[in-house]
C-alpha cells in the first residue's frame, strides 16, 4: 500500500462515527443487499436476517452490524456502493463529500450493479422514450422515417412578457436552460407556433436526446403528455398523480416501497414534463368552480391535475414545457420563459431538402422549382407544408417522371389537394408494364377516389362540428369507409393512453388536413344550401372575443373566464373557411378537380 492509502481513515470507524446519519438516511436497502451478496461479503443467511427485520432503520442497523463484523473490506465496499450508485443514495452524497471519500484502487475494480428501483425506473423510462421517439410517426403509415434522418433545426425566438424579442435559441439545450427566463417564479417554458411549424417534433427531438443522455440536464425523469389525452378522460373519472405519471407513461417495476414516487415528490427539480398541444384541450369546464389540487395523494379530475402541475401546486420546481398554437395566451405569472417557433430559415430548408432527396440531381430540380416560386418557398418555411410539397414532388417523380407542380401560383389549398391526390393515387391501377411512367391524370385519380374521399370528408366535417379530433371505428364505418380506405393514409390510429382494451381510436394525420377535408365535405354536398356552406364563417365571427383555456382557474384573478369552447376550435374553423374559399375559387372548380363530379 502507498503512503496515501495508509493515511486513509478506516471505513469501519467511519460507519461507527456516522451511524446515526446512516440509519436515518439510508434507503434502497435491497440494492445494498444485492451487491454485498454478489460480492460475497454477505451470504444468503445474512440477507434473510436483514429482510426479516421489520423497519427500514432497523434493517440499516442490522446491515451495519453485519458489515462491521465482517471487517474493513466489507465496510469499505459498503461505502463504495453508496458512492458508486449516487442516484439511489443521493441523500448521502453530501456526506461522502464531507468525509472526502475517494475509493481505493482495489475498490475501483469491484463490480457494483445498480438494482435500485429509482435507477431501474430511469433506465426503463429512457429505454421506452428512445423506442417511442426514434421515428417520425405522423404521416402516412406507409413511410415512417427515422427522426435523425429527417429532423432539421428550426428558428426559435425568445420573448419577454411584453412580447419583445430577446434573441434566438441556438440549440435545444438552451430550451431548458436559463436563457430568456423573464420570470424565475414562473413554472412553464411556453412554446408557441403556428399549425405544422414543428412543435410536436421539437418535443420529440428533445425527448429523444434525453433518452440517449445527449440533453444537457440533470433531470433523471421525463414524462411526456399530449394535452389532448386530458380531454379523453371522463369528467367524473378521478385519478391520482401517481396513476397519471405511471399508468399513462411508464410503470415502475419492483418498487414495493413506492420509492420512485417518493423520490419524485422529494426532488421535483429532477423531473421534466412536456405537455404538447395545450390548444387541443376540448373541455368545457366551469372555470370558477374547479378546486385546485394541492396534495399529491388526492385523486382528482385529470384536468385539475394538469393545471395544478402547470401552475406549480403539484411538483413545484419540475421543468415543464408546454406547447400551443399561436394565439393562446397564458398569464405571464405562470410563464418562466416564452419561445416562438418560426419554422425553417432558408438555410434550414436547404438542409431539409438534402435530407429529403438523396440524389443531387433531384435536390437541384426541387431547388429550382422553389426558387422560381417565392410563394411556394414561403409556404415551405412551415415544416408541415414542406413535407407535403416534397412528398408531392416525390410522388410526381415516381409516377410521372417530373418534379413540376401543376400550378405556377401555389396556395395552401393546392398543397392539400395535392396531398389528397398523392393518397388517392394508391387506388390507381398500376401503369402498364410497357409504360415506364403513367401519364398524369388528376381528374381520373379524383374520380376513382371520390367515394373514399367523400367518406373521409364527411368524417372530418362531423368531427369538426362537434369539436372533436378523434373518431371511433364505428364513426369511420358509418361514413362508408373500409379497411382498404384506411390504408390510404388520411387517418392514423392513436394507441397512446390506451391502457384498457378500449376499441381503437383514430385521428387525421394532421388537424389541418381535417379542416381541409371538412371544407371539401361542404363543397361536395349537393344538398347543402349556400348558407350552410358558409356556417363556419358565422361561427368564427361570433367567437371573435379572445378566449382563455382552463389555466385561468389556477390564476383566477388574471384571466376573465369567457365562452365555453377554446379558441383552438375556432382556429380549425378558420382553417376550414380558408380552404372553403380556396376550393370555391372558380379556376379549381372548372379546370382541375371537380370536372369529374360537378
Ligand atoms: N424540425 C423538423 N424537422 C423535420 N421535419 C419537421 C420538423 N418539424 C416538423 N416537421 C414535419 O412537419 C410535420 C408537422 O410537425 P408537428 O406535428 O411537429 O407540427 P405542430 O407545430 O405540432 O402542429 P400542430 O400545431 O398542428 O399540432 C411533422 O410530422 C414533420 O413531418
Automatic annotation (TrEMBL):
SUPFAM superfamilies: DEATH domain (SSF47986), P-loop containing nucleoside triphosphate hydrolases (SSF52540). GO terms for cellular component: cytoplasm. Residues 13-79 form the CARD domain. PROSITE patterns: CARD (PS50209), NACHT (PS50837). Residues 187-327 form the NACHT domain. It comes from the Eukaryota. One of its GO terms (biological process) is positive regulation of MHC class I biosynthetic process. One of its GO terms (molecular function) is ATP binding. InterPro entries: CARD, DEATH-like_dom_sf, NACHT_NTPase, NLRP_HD2, NOD1/2_WH, P-loop_NTPase. It is found in: Cytoplasm. The keyword Mitochondrion does not apply. Keywords: ATP-binding, Cytoplasm, Immunity, Innate immunity, Leucine-rich repeat, Nucleotide-binding, Repeat. This is Nucleotide binding oligomerization domain containing 1. It comes from Poecilia latipinna.
Amino acid at each position: 500500500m502507498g503512503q496515501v492509502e495508509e493515511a486513509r481513515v478506516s471505513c469501519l470507524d467511519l460507519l461507527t462515527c456516522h451511524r446515526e446519519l446512516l440509519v436515518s438516511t439510508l434507503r434502497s436497502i435491497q440494492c445494498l443487499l444485492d451487491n454485498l451478496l454478489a460480492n460475497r461479503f454477505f451470504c444468503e443467511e445474512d440477507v434473510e436476517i436483514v429482510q426479516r427485520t421489520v423497519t427500514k432503520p432497523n434493517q440499516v442497523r442490522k446491515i451495519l452490524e453485519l458489515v462491521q463484523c465482517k471487517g474493513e473490506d466489507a465496510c469499505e465496499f459498503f461505502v463504495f456502493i453508496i458512492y458508486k450508485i449516487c442516484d439511489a443514495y443521493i441523500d448521502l452524497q453530501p456526506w461522502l463529500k464531507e468525509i472526502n471519500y475517494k475509493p481505493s484502487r482495489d475498490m475501483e475494480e469491484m463490480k457494483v450493479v445498480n438494482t435500485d428501483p429509482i435507477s431501474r425506473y430511469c433506465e426503463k423510462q429512457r429505454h421506452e422514450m428512445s423506442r417511442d421517439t426514434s421515428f417520425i410517426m405522423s404521416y402516412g403509415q406507409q413511410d415512417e422515417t427515422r427522426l435523425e434522418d429527417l429532423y432539421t433545426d428550426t428558428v426559435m425566438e425568445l420573448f419577454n412578457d411584453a412580447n419583445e424579442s430577446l434573441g434566438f435559441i441556438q440549440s435545444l439545450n438552451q430550451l431548458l436552460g436559463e436563457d430568456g427566463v423573464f420570470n424565475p417564479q414562473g413554472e412553464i417554458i411556453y412554446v408557441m407556433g403556428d399549425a405544422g411549424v414543428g412543435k410536436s417534433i421539437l418535443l420529440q427531438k428533445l425527448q429523444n436526446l434525453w433518452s440517449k443522455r445527449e440533453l444537457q440536464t440533470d433531470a433523471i425523469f421525463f414524462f411526456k403528455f399530449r394535452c389532448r389525452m386530458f380531454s379523453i378522460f371522463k369528467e367524473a373519472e378521478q385519478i391520482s398523480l401517481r396513476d397519471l405519471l405511471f399508468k399513462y407513461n411508464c410503470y415502475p417495476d419492483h418498487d414495493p416501497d413506492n420509492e420512485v414516487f417518493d423520490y419524485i415528490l422529494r426532488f421535483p427539480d429532477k423531473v421534466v414534463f412536456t405537455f404538447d398541444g395545450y390548444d387541443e384541450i376540448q373541455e368545457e369546464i366551469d372555470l370558477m368552480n374547479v378546486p385546485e389540487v394541492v396534495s399529491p395523494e388526492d385523486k382528482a379530475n385529470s384536468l385539475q391535475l394538469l393545471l395544478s402541475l402547470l401552475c406549480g401546486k403539484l411538483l413545484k420546481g419540475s421543468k415543464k414545457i408546454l406547447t400551443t398554437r399561436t394565439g393562446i395566451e397564458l398569464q405571464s405569472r405562470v410563464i418562466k420563459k416564452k419561445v416562438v417557433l418560426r419554422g425553417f430559415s432558408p438555410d434550414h430548408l436547404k438542409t431539409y431538402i438534402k435530407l429529403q432527396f438523396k440524389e443531387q440531381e433531384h435536390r437541384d430540380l426541387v431547388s429550382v422549382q422553389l426558387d422560381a416560386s417565392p410563394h411556394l418557398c414561403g409556404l415551405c418555411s412551415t415544416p408541415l407544408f414542406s413535407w407535403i410539397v416534397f412528398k408531392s414532388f416525390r410522388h410526381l417523380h415516381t409516377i410521372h417522371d417530373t418534379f413540376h407542380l401543376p400550378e405556377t401560383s401555389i396556395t395552401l389549398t393546392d398543397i392539400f389537394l395535392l396531398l389528397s391526390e398523392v393518397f388517392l393515387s394508391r387506388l390507381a391501377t398500376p401503369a402498364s408494364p410497357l409504360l415506364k411512367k403513367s401519364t398524369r391524370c388528376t381528374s381520373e385519380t379524383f374520380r376513382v377516389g371520390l367515394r373514399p374521399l367523400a367518406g373521409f370528408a364527411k368524417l372530418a366535417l362531423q368531427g369538426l362540428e362537434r369539436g372533436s379530433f378523434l373518431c371511433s371505428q364505428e364513426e369511420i364505418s358509418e361514413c362508408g369507409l373500409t379497411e382498404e380506405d384506411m390504408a390510404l393514409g388520411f387517418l392514423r390510429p392513436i394507441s397512446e393512453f390506451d391502457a384498457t382494451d378500449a376499441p381503437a381510436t383514430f385521428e387525421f394525420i394532421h388537424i389541418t388536413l381535417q379542416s381541409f377535408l371538412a371544407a371539401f365535405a361542404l363543397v361536395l354536398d349537393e344538398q347543402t344550401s349556400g348558407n350552410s356552406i358558409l356556417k363556419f364563417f358565422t361561427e368564427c365571427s361570433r367567437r371573435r372575443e379572445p378566449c382563455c383555456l382552463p389555466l385561468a382557474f389556477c390564476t383566477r384573478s388574471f384571466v376573465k373566464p369567457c365562452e365555453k369552447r377554446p379558441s383552438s376550435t375556432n382556429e380549425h374553423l378558420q382553417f376550414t373557411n380558408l380552404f372553403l374559399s380556396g376550393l370555391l375559387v372558380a379556376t379549381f372548380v372548372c379546370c382541375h378537380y371537380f370536372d369529374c363530379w360537378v
